[in-house]
Design brief:
The chain contains no helices and 8 strands. It is mainly β. A 4-stranded antiparallel sheet has the order 7-6-5-8, with no helix packed on it. Strands 1-2 form a two-stranded antiparallel sheet. A two-stranded antiparallel sheet has the order 3-4.
Length: 150
């Protein structure tokens, strides 16, 4: 993703740099990979406000992201890259090459583009979007989306 730098027209915009989102998908997310997201307003299970200043905001749909990447040794093609209001990373819609052509959302790493092929397995190439076990990674590999508990 490219960065957009702005000329300051006010003191608050001095040094403003934003991500260019023109290459992201403009439509709605895949309906079978979304579900409703209930807001808490900063309240706990007793209804007491435990975090102040939380409330309002735009209505959101939760995108179901495949963090585990359990479909091993099946190549997938990146269909599109989307904005996700629930996390700071973009997500990528991938379509698997097996016979039924299932789709899933994955966390989109940097330098992943539409049309790229990604694969998850024990022995795969070290490319952006590919997933492998941490013991199989060469030393010095740039990683993303690491789970805390095995």
């Amino acid at each position: 993703m490219a960065l957009k730098k702005f000329n300051p027209t006010s003191p608050g915009q001095r040094g403003l740099v934003l991500i260019d989102r023109s290459s992201l998908h403009k439509g709605r997310p895949v309906k079978m990979l979304t579900e409703g997201l209930k807001k808490t307003g900063g309240r706990n299970n007793k209804g007491h406000a435990t975090a102040r200043g939380i409330g309002g905001g735009h209505k959101r749909l939760y995108r179901i992201v495949d963090f585990k990447r359990r479909t091993w040794d099946v190549a997938a093609t990146v269909e599109r890259i989307e904005y996700d209001p629930n996390r700071s990373a973009f997500i990528a819609l991938v379509k698997y090459a097996d016979k039924d052509g299932t789709v899933a959302y994955i966390i989109a790493p940097q330098r992943l583009n539409v049309g790229d092929s990604v694969i998850a397995g024990k022995k795969v190439d070290v490319k952006p979007g590919n997933a492998m076990e941490i013991g199989q990674m060469p030393v010095g590999t740039i990683v993303h989306n690491v789970e805390l508990k095995p």
